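task queued by scheduler; priority normal; single chain, no ligands, no partner chains; default sampling; output format set to structure tokens
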Amino acid sequence: MSARARVVTVGETMALLRSGTIGSLAHLPSVDISLGGAESNLAIGLQRLGVQAAWISRVGADPLGTRVVREIRGEGVEVRCAVDPERPTGLMLKSRPTGTTTRVDYYRAGSAASALSPAELPGDLIEEAEILHVSGITPLLSPSAREAVRIAVERAVAAGTTVSLDVNHRSRLGSAEHLAALLEDVLGHVDVLFGGTEELALLAPQVDGSDARALLTALARPGREVVAKLGPDGAAALVDGRLHESAGHRVDVVDTVGAGDAFVAGYLSARLDGQDVPGRLERANACGALACTAPGDWEGGARRRGAGGVPARRGGGSGLAVSGAARMDPMTTTPPPGPSPVGSVDKALSLLEVLAEAGPEGMTLRDISAESGLNKASAHRLLRALMHRGFAEQAVTDQTYRLGAALPLLASRFEREENLPVLMAPALAAISQEVQELVHLSRLDGPHVLYLDKVEPERALRVWSRVGSRAPAARTAMGRAILTADGVRGAGLESYARASEGADGGRTVTAAHLEEVIAEAQRRGWASEVEENEAGIACVGVALVRPGGRSVAVSVTGPIERMDAARREEVGALLREQLATLAPTGFSVAELG
């Protein structure tokens, strides 16, 4: 029989489809399957730290639900999970559209866990535990889930079980005001309260959200521990009227999702180990930082030293052991090598990423603070510095912030000709993977096209090409696409036609024929050539244009038996679709009609 669960948590865990490479899920060929949920992340984190935990939830009668239960149980967590024959397991999609951004999409409406109710709460499990942990996510799932949280807390209070709450506001599930109203029933019974400053502020709207000390004081109650998660700045806690602060760690961030749950697991495990408040914060900060150094919501979490777990020293040392490159010294929690030497620069760059995600609509200071993990005062100071240099601007009408004009100017300087292969590499790779044919990038060089880059497919091909070589623009799909986009017509085509005469054994293209194929490209939106540049080979090309810069083109090339008329139509449409999504900032697919 398994040991009694010392911590019980209740909430939804979703199946997670995660991209392993940079790019949009609209085009990536495969994803990894995992799972994620604040409460199960916490339970797994506690289990790895030597604390027996139990997780209560619901999943669908589907393969993803089976996987969720198997993975959590495989980590040693006691699983109390109902299987719903009608509702599906919730699903989360996580991708990295660029090297510096992460996108998460949720499909949880009507999920099995949204039907969570008091009926799923096992008898005596809560009463026999030392801590019941809940989050602000579960009450937002449905009225019955909210009631399940209320009854669980009620039972914990009656049994003398400590109640822990992580506010964990998910704006896609409901507004801050709505969550604050839902938590009114349980907040008075909370013994350990966690949240970022923005989250704590929604429970104390009368307090300046940028003042962590004021927030902690406003939410303090006799016997309550209030803990503010400050991200890379560390953490602060108010316990028995005394403020404790602990510095954070600078690490090379891979994935921040799940770091808050790891933080809470570290704090609660240290609390159960009998550590004082500074020791709890030290372990919490170490666990949160370590979680950021590996992909996944929980996979990179910390473990206790030793097979059976070695208790941490009271009042100091995290007592953690970490495998792999993301190692921290278990006694000192020294960050791994490689952090930025200037923390303020890191913070300013993180604000630029937040503003980039916000788009032209901009974002309020409050939302910027919540998204970046910086308190409002720090965010405001950094925004003023960015505005001074033109990298950010503030709307006069609604005071929202957005990217400034200096960034496009900086980008345009980078987008010089010599940087085109670097800029276009992700798009070329994605297209080649999709069509399994040779993909080229080129620009005009006099009457020729200059091959700037290429990506070869996994399967064998018999097409010869070399980066840096040239071919007559008149007889290549890329050259024709660029000439069409640049509006070259009539007599302007004659020099391009003459350049094809006797070149490299390919066909000679007359100006009249070139006029015809350009008219056809204008009608279709893409250009083509069939055995005109090389025998047995067909090619489809699409042009990209940019203000103030030369046009470029991307082509797909393959043997004629694989590139018949129907396939060329298909590839032409696919090229336009993918380039519209994947082209670098400042480039757009040429509108030829």
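post-processing summary
- Residues 16 and 35 are 4 Å apart (CA to CA).
- The first strand starts at residue 7 and ends at 10.
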